User: What shape does this take?
Amino acid sequence: MERPTSNATLPPRRSRGPELPKTSTGIRGLDEITRGGLPQGRPTLVCGGPGSGKTLLALTFLVNGAIQFDEPGVLMTFEENDQEIASDVASLGFDLPELVAAHKLAVDYVRVERSEIEETGEYDLEGLFVRLDHAIRSVGAKRVVLDTIESLFAGLKNDSILRSELRRLFRWLKEQGVTAVITGERGDGLLTRQGLEEYVSDAVILLDHRVHDQVSTRRLRVVKYRGSYHGTNEYPFLISADGISVLPVSSMALQHEAPLERVSSGIARLDEMLSGKGFYRGSTILVSGTAGTGKTSLAAHFLDAACRRGERCLCFLFEESPQQLLRNMRSIGIDLEPWVGAGLLRFHADRPSRYGLETHLVTMYETVAAFKPTVTVIDPVTNLMTVGTYADVQAMLTRMIDHLKTENITAMLTSLMPGQIDIERTETAISSLMDTWMVLANDPVDGRHRRGLYVLKSRGMAHSNELREFVLTDQGLTMRDAVSDPRGTPDVPNTLWEGRDQHAVA
Amino acid sequence: MQLLEDGVPLVPPAGQTYRLRLYVAGQTPKSVLAFRNLKQICEEHLHGHYEIEIIDLLQNPQLAQGDQILAIPTLVRRLPEPIKKIIGDLSNTERVLVGLDLRMGQ
Assistant: This one.
């Protein structure tokens, strides 16, 4: 009889050939990174340190299979018994006993206690094979999880028998045609303590759990995936009440659409400055300025206008609570409350220090996915920068902005600058990602503060380069006619003019 | 069998019947050897005080889980309690006797 493993001994397919069949994990993001899931009918090694989420990932794979894809599964656990496992994952909303009762899942707890076992002479692990085979047949399993088979090394003395039996086991799993996930504990200088990667070599996924500045971040990397393309970066992943999700880095290439449609800023005279029509839909707008220059007010106008058009708006707040913002905006005549009531506007307020950047990123990503806004405001994006290093922040924002662009979401980010002097220089971390950049300034002139606004850049449109004065009234933000800068001529580079008919390119 | 020659005292079975289970998976050479070794040891040390039950997991795979069988062959001493397990072809009589509590381990 021809073994299904024969494929494994063939030379790897050339890139022209069709990709290997894959089994969807149902884990958002992971299927994207692996271009469809785990190699079908083959074992995948998932390794990581203690608490890195190996077991949860493996179980999610099983449960999703049983529930979403009509693929029953077998869980063979070597460390925790059925009840422990069931209660571990109950918090994710998985009801293992119910799946077992419905014959969609079989659980076998393998307990090996070295002190209880005397070894004499030759043996093999046929008992393990029999149990696994029995479990697979009992539910017609298509998916198998072995968690964590390395425990056997602690229970049995004869390493060489164990190793040859494990090799036989993984070969046997392939012959059964089941898609298997084998978990392994991260070892010193090795992916797993016992070097399981030597036996399970079709696909290897590495999980990592780091704590930096008291903030923990989980990451996932596909170390190896034989016969398939895969993303090679580290991707943040999150374990939340909704289960596991992995955040794919932005689209791999710059291929966002560049719509020609324009959206109003909500301030007619500001639209005028933006070649008379406002922002491009799907573009990213940075509003920077020192404290009290009116950044949030500008954003509120933008949100109000979008809601008036019936668009869904999502507003991330990293400084104020939604109530504070609503109250403050009411004082300048912008009442956003009805939009909240109508379900068009949603706030998501978080303390930046609450999690690491990656978690913020995942949370924002998920909130966007759940609410499906067409307009998003992040106020202020600079507060996030306190959470990570310069490079981390840039990487995170690149991903976020990339994602928003892909979804054609118009995004306005406000940026709080510590001082006026170097506004244009200090924001290099993010300004290159922006399509439109507006600067708000606050200058003491003739014994009072005058607020000014200018458009530093706006890709793909002939924008004004004047400094305009504006006032915050109880009717909102009102622009005045062009003023000359009290400091002299504003140094607005004209080189960003990219032609009236060009559209925004990311 | 010159097992008793080193003078280590045999722990007496105290009149109790030893209930032993030998788990195998088909008639493999290892299983056959294990059974032959077991039979011999029992005849020599537990004559008349033992029962051996052979369980072939290929016919009764569901029985593997209960006794936590992993290795084949596995000998399980079900009585007297506590349960003891000896894995392998039982070719080292000394270790089998230790495993069955018939001889003090060193």
Summary: The two ends of chain B are 20 Å apart (CA to CA). Chain B touches chain A at residues 23, 25, 28, 30, 33-34, 57-58, 61-62, 64-65, 68-74, 83-92, 95-96, 98-99 (CB under 8 Å). The CA atoms of residues 21 and 93 of chain B lie 17 Å apart. Helices of chain B lie at 29-45, 63-66, 93-99.
